[in-house]
Amino acid sequence: MEALLQRLIQLSSNLVERLDNADLEQFDEYMRQREELFKELEHMEAPVEQLAVLRLEADKIISSESVIIARMISLRDEAKQQWEKIQQGRRSQAKYDSAYGGGDSLFFDAKR
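RE: above sequence
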């Protein structure tokens, strides 16, 4: 069990080290590996005498994951702002197009 917790700590630490440059695929891979490790941990039982040590390991994981979660929330908020800008641009374009006939303009040459 302690080995699994160490792998989870290492996984979290690796992501925290490259957190500012991490892309969506790296977050996705982290979450996939993390889920696999948690599934393995669910099937194990720890001896009572090991619980104190395991609690310290779990606290390390929790502190790392709070940093990761904060970064993920920040990225989500940035994406939301960009999405809102795109939607606002589309609404402005739709208003402009509807004000001028929906973009189907005709050109008349009065001289011919």
